TrEMBL record:
Chief localisation class: mitochondrion
Protein name: Mitochondrial nucleoid factor 1
One GO BP annotation of this record: regulation of skeletal muscle cell differentiation
PANTHER family in alphabetical order: UBIQUINOL-CYTOCHROME-C REDUCTASE COMPLEX ASSEMBLY FACTOR 2
Superkingdom assignment: Eukaryota
Organism: Sus scrofa (Pig)
Keywords: Mitochondrion, Mitochondrion nucleoid, Transit peptide
Locations listed in the record: Mitochondrion matrix, Mitochondrion nucleoid
Any one of the GO CC terms: nuclear body
One Pfam family matching this protein: UQCC2_CBP6
Keyword Cell membrane: no
């Protein structure tokens, strides 16, 4: 029975789309990682709680098939902000969020990061050079 559960989860992982704009935060990538952890031994994995496993699969399958989107249709495809789906995807991409974080930093913090040594050894060498310079 574990083999059939494993195959169902694999099929779901194959069908679940990956969003390349959300590096490190993508639900599809996280799902693949969790399935690999849960089924370390593949089809031979012993499942401690088969009912919970089946329930998890059914929940994920409903999300993937847009069950609730079809069950509770929205009258319009807009939100309170008036932005479209494509605009939200652009805003929520990892690159855009990184840009927002960079904009949020103050000038002093940006300068520190730009001129700070990358590793502790460089930091030590920079301090040694600064202390060994003759003062004029």
């Amino acid at each position: 029975m574990a083999a059939s559960r494993y195959r169902r989860f694999l099929r779901l992982c194959e069908e679940w789309p990956l969003d390349e704009t959300k590096r490190g935060r993508d639900l599809g990538a996280y799902l693949r990682q969790r399935v690999a952890q849960a089924f370390r031994e593949g089809e031979n994995t012993q499942i401690a709680e088969p009912e919970a496993c089946d329930q998890m699969y059914e929940s994920l399958a409903r999300l993937h098939s847009n069950y609730y989107k079809h069950k509770y249709p929205r009258p319009r495809d807009t939100s309170f902000s008036g932005l479209s789906l494509e605009e939200y995807k652009l805003i929520l991409s990892t690159d855009t969020l990184d840009e927002f974080k960079e904009m949020d930093k103050g000038v002093w913090k940006k300068l520190q990061e730009r001129f700070a040594p990358r590793n502790p050894e460089e930091k030590h060498k920079a301090w040694a050079r600064a202390l060994s310079r003759p003062r004029t």
